[in-house]
Amino acid sequence: MERPQSDTIDAPPEPAALIIPAFAQRCREACHEEWEKAAAHPFVRSLIGGELDTERFRFYQMQDARYLEAYADTCSILSTRFKAPAEKLWFIDGARLAIVVEQQLHAGYGEKLGYTPEDVYDLTCTPNNTAYQNHMLQVASRGSLVEGLSALAPCPWLYTDIGIRMMEQLGSIPADHPYADWLATYADPSFVAYTNELLALLEKVASQHDGSVLDQAVEAFRSSVRYEWMFWEQSWTQQQWPV
C-alpha cells in the first residue's frame, strides 16, 4: 500500500507511551554507557539525518535480513519454554512478525538497492552478526528463561528508543527522506506496543527469580546491547571476515 502524498510523514498525534518495568530499568541502568553509544552511533545519526550512503545502508539491510531469521528462531525457542498458551502464541506470532513484516520492507528496498531474496539467502554473515545470532540462540536454549528474554529485549527496545528520540528531534519524517519508510517503522505505535508487551513478559518472569539468576540476565542484556552497537559498526565499516 502506498503512503498518501504529503511533504512529511507525521508522528501519531498521541503516540503510545513506552512503559519500562523495574527489571528492564535495572538492565538499562546497568549498561547505560553501552546503550547511549549504540543509540548515538554514527550509522544511526547518518540514517536519521538522511546522509547515510546507499552502500552502507544496503550492507545493513542485507545483514539485518539474516539477523532477523535468528531473531525469529529465538522467539520460537522461547515459545517452547512458556506453559501458558497465550504466552506461547505471543512468541510464535513474534517469530512470524519478524520474518513477514521485515521481508516486506526488505523487498521494497531490495528493488531500490539492487538485491534479491536469493542474494540475502546466499549472503555470508559478518563476524559481528554471526556472534550476535549465536549469543541469542545459545542463551535462549541453555540459559534461564529470564536470561533468554533479556538477550532478546535490546533489539526491539533500542529501536523503539531511537524512534522516540527521532520524533522528538524531527517532529515528523520528510516524505522525501531517502529512508522515510524505514524510519517510519521506528515511530510506529505498534512497535512501541510490541516492546511494552515484551518488557511486561520479562518483568513477569524476572519477578519469579532473584540473586545470581537475575545477575546473569542483566549480563545477557548487556551483551545484546553491545552487539547492537557492533551491528551498527559492522554496517558503518562494511565488515568482512579477515581471512
Report on this structure.
By secondary structure, the protein is mostly helical. The chain has a domain at 27-44 and 86-237: Heme Oxygenase, Chain A (Up-down Bundle). It contains twelve helices and two strands, in the order E-H-H-H-H-H-H-H-H-H-E-H-H-H. Strands 1-2 form a two-stranded antiparallel sheet. Helix 9 packs across helix 10 (180-186). The longest helix has 29 residues, at 85-113. The radius of gyration is 18 Å and the shape is globular. The protein starts with 7 loop residues before the first strand and ends in a 6-residue tail after the last helix. 37% of the residues are buried.
Helix content percent band:
over 70%
Overall average pLDDT: 91
CATH third-level topology of the domain at 27-44 and 86-237: Heme Oxygenase, Chain A
Pattern of helices and strands: EHHHHHHHHHEHHH
How many distinct helices? 12
Q: Main beta sheet, described?
A: 2 strands, antiparallel
* Cα Rg: 18 Å
CATH class of the domain at 27-44 and 86-237: Mainly Alpha
State the end-to-end distance.
44 Å
